Amino acid sequence: MKFLYPLFFFIFFSINAQDSRDAFAIIKGNPKEYKETWYAAKKTKAGFVKGKYLHDDVYNINAYGEIVKQSFMPPEKWEVPQTSYNKDNQKIETINYNEEGGIKDRTKFLYDKNKLVEEKIYGDSDTLFVSNKYEYLNNLVVKKLEFRAEKGVFKSTPSEITTYEYDSKNNIIVEFIALEDEYVAFAYKYDDKNFMTEVHSKSSFPVREKEFSISIRYNYQKYDLNNWTEVYVEDDLSSDRKPSYYFIQREFKY
Fold first, then answer.
1. Contact 147, 133 (CB under 8 A)
2. Cα(171)–Cα(89) distance, rounded to whole angstroms?
3. What are phi and psi of 14, to 5 degrees?
4. How far apart are CA 164 and CA 146, in angstroms?
């Protein structure tokens, strides 16, 4: 589950997916801007040690509450999803373009009042080929059903079903994705400040795993009044590769 951002200086514009499940996805307290500084790190018997500087990233929060990474160069049209919103600041359409300027795909978002109930995904020929439908319980998404079309005709049964479980503070604690006879699942743990501390995973490929194993651990060192400002990250803990360690500092402008 490698998540380290690309280590280069032409940092392109990006918007974090709103349903991302990691320690970087949720920003509290309505900051206008924040900066992340990444360092390599190592773990010893005595604890963590900060290593060499890697890179900086600066983010803004746009008018729609989305996290936008600053770019040193104006992004090309094909690098940036073109998004439209309604009067309630709800995302209603996102278009991705190819390098030739044509439409690669587009997604329409349908709502029932303040709830997203369906996403319709169209290909470059403007043919609808995926429909994602959402089910709610107590205003929380508990199920996502993905229907795919074959030759323009949708199957009657979903190709993929994602279910969500929550704790008493409405944090997602289990995300289970079933794809016909295969599956992948994630379990999340949080601290008393509602910041994610661990990501666990299991899957059916290449071996059907029955138990969760830890993939990522976040070791928070400092907080401001709203967000964490220093963390040591342990990554790739469940793979056969050697784990990677990082230290990240954040500065917020509210």
1. yes
2. 24
3. -155, 155
4. 14
* Mean pLDDT on 224-251: 92
- Report residue 247 as tokens: 């230290």
| Residue 20's pLDDT band (cuts 50, 70, 90) | very low
Structure tokens at 17: 């997916």
- Cα 135 to chain center, whole Å? 20
Give the position of tokens 């990444």.
38
Instruction: Tell me the pTM.
Output: 0.83
Tokens of 253: 């402008």
From residue 215, alpha-carbon distances to 2, 3, 135, 187, 202 in Å are 9, 11, 28, 10, 9
208 burial type by CB count under 10 A (0-12 exposed, 13-18 middle, 19+ buried): exposed
Q: Are 85 and 92 in contact (CB under 8 A)?
A: yes
Q: Considering just the CA atoms, what is the radius of gyration of the chain in Å?
A: 20
pLDDT exceeds cutoff 70 at 224: yes
DSSP 126-178: S-EEEEEEEEEETTEEEEEEEEEEETTEE-SS-SEEEEEEE-TTS-EEEEEEE
DSSP conformational letter for 74: P
